[in-house]
Amino acid sequence: MNYRRLGTSDLEVAEISLGSWLTFGAGVDHERGAACINRALDVGINFFDTANVYGHGAAESFLADVLRGRDRSSYVLATKAFFPMSKRDRGLSAEQVHKQCEASLRRLGTDYVDLYQCHRYDEDTPLEETMGALTELVQQGKARYIGFSEWTAEQIRSSLELPDMERFVSSQPQYSMLWREPEKDVFPLCAEKGISHIVWSPLAQGVLTGKYRPGSPPPEDSRAASSTMGHFMSRLRDDDLLAAVQRLRPVAEGLDLSMAQLALAWVLRDASVASAIVGATRPEQVETNAAASGVDLGPDTLAEIDRILEDVGS
């Protein structure tokens, strides 16, 4: 496993990290989830990403249970806040930032998180109020660093212009061969400001593994076939898109890579991407994905990927 510095922080994070959206504490049973976490640690993954809203707190509690007894300094823990936790509890007001952080720390069984992230931008709260509360979390030692997910370039720039506030070290955008939107504005700004990316859905919710084929039902053990994990995948089940993804198979095979490893190596080709977050329902998936760390894709391979996907990506 290779490691990269997260922005201007002193955190060294694994190039492949493990997320918990729709899986741990929800779509995957405890035994299999624990096996995924333990295999991740065995192969050098030190970075675990979660959020208060994942499983409505269940993902955080699951991580606490599985990681209990391990040296806290041996892994990097990140969580997020913004989405509703109740009818009254949502957003990034100062009150909510402090309340939700405290609740996350209790569920995670820790005194601090390494990275506390704004899960989205809160249009209903002044930016100064949110940034002030995040700064207080760092000053109080409850969060070592702060980050954001899915902010626009304008929102990021505005946060950096506020005086006497803690600075973001990370961005968490959706990014994959099939979703390149952040390259337009967010990536250039973050590169200029020393902000790294922790990308989510680098495998396009499993589509880039090649397991879904045009005109065929999803495999029974796949995310798309799950009533709890597959409801966000409608856009990714288009037959033209799935057919294009299948044309990547010879590219991967020619490099002796799995389809997943090809997709992960593709996002990691950009030095500003500190880590690619993967989900997992089986420990074997974790080990296979981890092997993408350190894979270097040459210019001819990158050009071929662009050609294959030019009509289906965003």
Walk me through the structure.
This protein has eleven helices and ten strands. It has 314 residues and is α/β, with parallel strands linked by helices. The chain has a single domain (3-203, 273-297), classed as Alpha-Beta Barrel (TIM Barrel), CATH 3.20.20.100. The strands form two sheets. It has an eight-stranded parallel barrel, surrounded by five helices. Strands 1-2 form a two-stranded antiparallel sheet. α6 (186-193) links the parallel β8 and β9. α3 packs parallel to α4.
Label this structure with key terms.
TIM Barrel; 10 strands; single chain; 14% strand; eight-stranded parallel β-barrel; 11 helices
What is the element layout, followed by pairings?
Elements: E1 3-5, E2 12-14, E3 16-19, H1 30-42, E4 47-49, H2 58-67, E5 76-81, H3 94-108, E6 113-118, H4 127-139, E7 143-148, H5 153-160, E8 170-171, H6 186-193, E9 196-199, H7 239-246, H8 249-254, H9 259-268, E10 273-278, H10 283-290, H11 299-309
Parallel strand pairs: 3-4, 3-10, 4-5, 5-6, 6-7, 7-8, 8-9, 9-10
Antiparallel strand pairs: 1-2
Helix pairs in contact: 1-2, 1-10, 3-4
N-C termini distance: 30 Å
What share of the residues does DSSP label as strand, in percent? 5-15%
Pick out the low-confidence regions: none
CATH architectural label: Alpha-Beta Barrel
Q: What is Rg?
A: 19 Å
Query: What is the global morphology?
Result: globular
Write down the secondary-structure element order: EEEHEHEHEHEHEHEHHHEHH
Q: Mind describing the biggest β-sheet?
A: 8 strands, parallel, barrel
**Average pLDDT:** 93
What is the helix content?
Answer: 25-40%
